TrEMBL record:
Gene3D superfamilies: Chloramphenicol acetyltransferase-like domain, Nonribosomal peptide synthetase, condensation domain. This is Condensation domain-containing protein. It comes from Pseudomassariella vexata.
Amino acid sequence: MAVAAEHSRLQWAKASLRTYERSLDDMEKFFALAGEGGVGATDGQHWHIAVTAKIKATGLDLRKDVPTAWKTLRHINPCLSAVVQGDRWVYTVADEQELEPWLKETLHFHDTSSTSRDMFPIRNFTGRAALHVLLQTKELYLLAPHTHLDGIGAYTAMNNLVQALADTASVTDSPKLGGDEAQHLIPPLNVLADIPAATDAHRSTFKSMLGSWMAGFAGVKLQQDGDTKQPHGDPRILYAPFGVSETKCIIARCKELGFTVTAAVQAAVSIALRKQVKSTATIQSAVTIHDVRKWIDKTKYPATGLVGALAVPVPAVFTLADDFVETAHLAKQKYREPELTDLLRILPRFWGNEMVAIMTSPPAGASAPSSLGLSSFGIMDTYLKPSYQGAAGSNTQVEVEDAWLGITLYSPDILLHLWTLQGAIKLQCVYNEAYFKKEAVAALLEETRDELLQGLGLVN
């Protein structure tokens, strides 16, 4: 592969008076194909990212001021309003012909007492980012296909939106759009991080990794309550936060024992699953998620613009020991392994080529294994502040009282989300109701909490 030629195809270029286009890179190809996945007809709704912030706004009228903030976000992150057509991204400039239809299509107000968690999932057929404003509960609910957002990107976009909302009182003119925003279209990961071409040795490593990973699904694995070939139901979420005092103890104990909170939670959920399914296996296949924004030159591409698919999944086989602390240390090593070699930087090629080929033309009789995965978003206050002030001289303020992220699952998998916000660790399970009973997922989530606290020696 000629990397220079590839980079040329991946740069945004003006295709007409009103449009800009570029090709999809490897991770985007994977996420675009995955978005069409799930079981049965999903209408492209699989793996959509939703991020919500519950706010308290002073000096603002949400119905009046959010449209201005939404247009400002389009200026900051225009890629959220692009669409994928085949293997191409297409962005239409926000001129008079585009702006009103876009607002009507993507911005929605709800005068209901239902919360964002009650309304999850909201379907999004626009092919780009949409915003739902819950007027009674004061929540901003932003969602988009995974091609447009990853986890950290979702919180980054929400940060940009909330700051734009705080600034609306001082805005005298509408945000400058009409094509000016196209300067903020950024290239994808392959360009931003200069992802090298894969060699034959890398492909051999990919093949070996995939074989070990697939074999690992014979270890500790999920047990569905329904036929995994039956059409999907609705994605559901269960939420189990820790208190601030509990969080302080968990963080201190993990530090004392020499592993991360992520490794500890991975150990806890693996052990909890093994007990729930009454398994004696000592391995569990999953995927570790690695945010790679650190590879990107922030002087050229500011962090506020980095909202797209900039996380790399790594197939992983975790080892379960009899002892929690040992299992957590082994999990820590598994998370670190890709960072210690050049493998992580090459893996986007695996997802965009080998994995896309398998998904497009699966081997006869093959089916995707169900998995229990953990996504850790770290300390979300790094991306979403507790409070936002308007411009100097303005009395507007927006406080973030809570925030959460979900992903729409239309497959027989379970995803455990982990993050820390305003001093408290949050745990959340996402699953599909067609394949798992709520009671079973709730029990797994509660047992994960118990295993974490017991394994760290924080309860008797």
